[in-house]
Amino acid sequence: MILVVAEHKDNKLKPITGELIVFAQRLARDFSQPIAVAVLASNADSMAEDLKSRKIDRIITVNHDVLADYNPHSYISALKSIIEKEKPFTVLIGHTTQGMDFAPRLAASLRRPLIAGCVEYEKQGDKLILTRQIFNAKMNMKTAVRGEPPYFATASPGAFPADEVEMGGSAQVEKLSLDVPAPVKRKVIERVEAQKGKTDLTSAPIIVSGGRGLKQKENFALINELADAVGGSVGASRPVVDAEWLPREYQIGSSGQTVSPKLYIAVGISGAIQHLVGMQTSRCIVAINKDAEAPIFKVAHYGIVDDLFKVVPALTKILKDLKQG
User: Fold this and answer.
1) What is the pTM of this model?
2) What pLDDT does 55 receive?
3) Class of the CATH-defined domain 2-176
4) Cα–Cα distance measured from residue 66 to residue 250, given in angstroms and rounded to the nearest whole number
5) Which of 70, 90, 107, 211 has CB 3.0 to 4.6 Å from 268, enough for a Cys bridge?
6) In the chain, which segments carry CATH 3.40.50.620?
């Protein structure tokens, strides 16, 4: 069995859960394994209903008041009980702040290997080979898991696009009644939400990002206009944020948000590795830059080598005319 640990917030599944299910569906085909999704919450039933439409075999819910707010102590206890009962082949967890808080502890407590930040996998005979990126995504490292399962893996956001999920399932819901302990070393005192842009970039289907090639803050209006014309959200590279042209929540890259939209338009962005790490899994990348040697073109599917101050207004006009027509 392949066990997916669902991640959620405010009783709604987070996008990473859909990506983990895609990962699980691919593994299931290659290793002939059923798929189960574990939902730990104070009210997991509504999220279980949302999961039923996915092509999975089972949904395991644990409802407990202690699980109203995430805490690693309670999560690890509940998941250990599930894993010891189900004996899965692989356990998939999101490579998120939450996932990386409890996944290493969970794997270590069961004395099993954890491969973190996976972006791909392959099957060699009956062995599972997991690929993760290292040195700021400059290199890929393939790791063969050894010993008896379960094997633990966290999946990097955007590595397995959620829109590729197979639907049409008829999963059975199994409600587990567990004695989940309350956290002993930490408790939630207050939850403060970080300020976000107009749209959550991690779930935006189209993003138009601007870089320092725009030269000054006032010129960022070109990005806003293009984003509006294409129906997308606005993003930025680190130099733009450092220059205080936009707030930090718009930053895309290793020290900002990691995104994987269907369309990513990079305007005036040279493509430093720190930025590429945050967007290179986008389904279609369009780069606009006057420097033909800019690193951004190495990951772009389409490139325009020209002055952005000519290209962007022309492109915006074309898109607006298409809407009106």
Assistant:
1) 0.80
2) 94
3) alpha beta
4) 34
5) 211
6) 2-176
